[in-house]
Amino acid sequence: MNSILLRPLPSAGLSRRGSPEPRRVGSAVSFGERRCWRGVAVAAASSWMEEAGVAVLEEGVRRNPAVSDSYRPLGLPRPNATVLEAQARVCTGPEQTRPLGEEQAMRVLDTILRSAMGELKDELVSSAQLGAFFAGMTIRANSFPEATQWSEGERRAMSLFWPRLVNVLPLEVKFIADPEGTIMGANGLTGPRYVGQSTAEMRLVSALREVLAGGHLGYEEVQGVLKDVLPVELAIANSTMVSEALLAAFLIGQRMNRETDRELKGYCLAFDDELGPTPVADVKSLTHYGEPYDGNTRFFRSTLFVAAVRACYGEACLLHGVEWMPPKGGITEGQMLKFMGANTHLSPLQAKTLLEDENAGFAYLNLQEACPPLYSIIGLREHIKKRPPLATSEKVQQFVRAKGRESMVAGFYHVGYEDPLLMLMRRRTVHAGLVVKGEEGALSMTTKEKSAHASKGLPVNHCSGFRTPNNITFTETDGISREGFRVIVNAQELGFESTETPRTDRSVLKNLELGLAALSGEKGPAYDRIVLNAAMVDHLLGCTGAEDIKSALDRAREAIDSGNALSRLMNYIKISHKVS
Q1: 3-class secondary structure for 284-338?
Q2: Is 444 within 8 Å of 413 (Cβ atoms)?
Q3: Is residue 468 part of a domain?
């Protein structure tokens, strides 16, 4: 069975170098007649790539680089669709799980059996899928409430198929399916005796027994497991390879059990020292942006353009992520920058240089360079279907520090993750932290008026966070209590018209057209969203000059209408190829 763990690619950075009523300010940037911004986006990308000595992406490399799906890493095997659909139902929380009906359960188990017997050639069920699916079934049987435990249909299907599956499934999968021999009866005797096949697996199996029983681990236990098994490519080279089934079961099991604060801290801090001491940028203020790594699939993603705006008045911004991440596989900052020709494979030290550059003032880091151990399991994450704990902790990373003030911003969607994110930010000892329920669970607040038929839960534009009072000197050890806040941003009260959010529907090019047009001074929904998000982040984080929200909005508009923000974005594309 082919491994679905992602191997590191050569760094493109090495091979390509060479190489309260806000006033409406008229555009100070004249482009004559309104341009077709599709052409502007492509022209900007080609121009800077040629100037930097970078070859334009060839058709054979990217079938259509304007669409987010095309950034999925080449060579990754696809998961089996039948089993993946079942995973979406059973590998989730105690209240969210939807038990399978008998017909679907029969179909899933039959697919697993035929795959294990070698009868499925083109759509194998991967080891990671087996680990995730059976971990979900085991945790449900052991610890979930009655409503989301096994259905009668699932019981009948398993009683029919398990006597045959037990003869063809790998030992580690049989362990995951019945770790203590209490679920499958006489055919579940492998689990209690299973210990793993390497030192790293033994530690993972020991931790997994607790997870599969619905239990929790300590901070050191989580960190120990992660450091043992990741990065995957190094584990293989050292002959301590762990089963993808065990690793998948561990990751999805921790999420199904709802991670404790201690567990999340373990995920968040596990690889802080992976690349040595963290670079420190000589900037007066730095904001770390934690967008969901799997991107946007429906609506305009504004953060890249917001970063260019905020950099204009000394609020340096560090973005981080990947080009493509499951489960959504949507538009990311990495895709947009790569499409425009920027070097998206910078080291943290190179990002520090760009943050300090007076012509840039922001930077983007790819997880491949910033944290290779976590980058190595992108493929596995596609095969476990649901988001693992890393989907939360990766948004609160600190790949570069600052001599001045530091803040963090992260997007969230699901109830229950607002406070954990703020907890992780406090653990990072930053001066201010902000979590935003933006559109699609991302950071973009909307100017659209709240609908009377809005979904339950926290509304879009809900924000909460903390900040250090401006009249107090902050140190990492002084124990000062930060000011907390919760607010729902109403754009109409700030003078914005209610407008529908522009749809991009996975089109990288469309997202760039909207953003570049807005940074050129073209008024409209995208322009308003960039202004709103830049100013509100400044205001809520307590940034200098943004104490008054009207002043913060005017400052953001001036950065755009002067042409400064657009210039910084274009400068970044050039400079990203010249840093060393």
Answers
A1: CEEEEEECCCCCECCECCCHHHHHHHHHCCCCEEEEEECCCCCCCCCECHHHHHH
A2: no
A3: yes
Together in a domain, 410 and 476:
yes
331 and 199 inside one domain: no
Whether 42 shows a pLDDT value over 70: the answer reads no
Residues 519 and 480 both lie in one domain:
yes
Show which of 227, 258, 289 is a domain's final residue: 258
Q: What are phi and psi of 524, to 5 degrees?
A: 155, -170
Residue 387 belongs to a domain: yes
Kindly tell me the sign of the dihedral angle through the C-alpha atoms of 79, 80, 85, 90. Answer: negative
Show the 3-state SS of 100-159.
Answer: CCHHHHHHHHHHHHHHHCCCCCCCCCCHHHHHHHHHHHHHHHHHCCHHHCCCHHHHHHHH
Separation of alpha carbons 388 and 218, rounded Å: 17
Residue 199 lies in a domain: yes
Flag whether pLDDT at 33 surpasses 50.
no
Name residues whose C-beta falls within 8 Å of residue 164's C-beta, 6 or more positions apart in sequence: 113
The pLDDT tens digits for 71-110 are: 999 889 999 999 999 999 999 999 999 999 999 999 999 9
- Based on the domain organization, do 562 and 530 belong to the same domain? yes
Does 459 share its domain with 512? yes
| 3-state SS record for 522-579 | CCCHHHHHHHHHHHHHHHHHCCCCCCCHHHHHHHHHHHHHCCHHHHHHHHHHHHCCCC
From 230, 251, 249, 245, select the one nearest 6 (Cα to Cα).
Answer: 230
Residue 44 lies in a domain: no
The closest alpha carbon to 68, from 381, 446, 512, belongs to 512
* Cβ atoms within 10 Å, residue 453: 5
**Separation of alpha carbons 545 and 257, rounded Å:** 44
**CATH code for the domain in which residue 450 is found:** 3.40.1030.10
Q: CB-based contacts of 452: which residues, under 8 Å, 6+ apart? A: none
Shared domain check, 473 and 566: yes
Q: Domain total for the chain?
A: 2
Mean pLDDT of 165-193: 91
**Which residue from 386, 388, 383, 387 is spatially nearest to 129, judged by alpha carbons?**
383
Distances (CA, A) of 228 to 29, 199, 277, 314, 487: 55, 9, 21, 41, 42
Indicate the burial class of 423 (C-beta count within 10 angstroms; 0-12, 13-18, 19 or more): middle
Return the closest-CA partner of residue 83 out of 325, 382, 379. Answer: 382
Last residue of a domain, one of 212, 227, 258: 258
Query: Is residue 544 domain-shared with residue 509, that is, in the same domain?
Result: yes
Name the nearest CA neighbour of 335 among 75, 40, 70, 567.
70
Helices (H), 150-217: 152-165, 171-177, 190-193, 199-212
Q: Cite the beta strand spans of 412-453 per DSSP E.
A: 432-437
pTM for this structure?
A: 0.88
321-342 tens-digit pLDDT: 999 999 999 999 999 999 999 9
DSSP state of 394: T
Give 119-160 pLDDT, tens digit per residue: 998 899 999 999 999 999 999 999 999 999 999 999 999 999
Q: Which domain holds residue 176?
A: 81-258
Q: Are 371 and 402 part of one and the same domain?
A: yes
Q: Distances from the Cα of 529 to the Cαs of 28, 145, 311, 314, 514, in angstroms?
A: 19, 42, 17, 20, 11
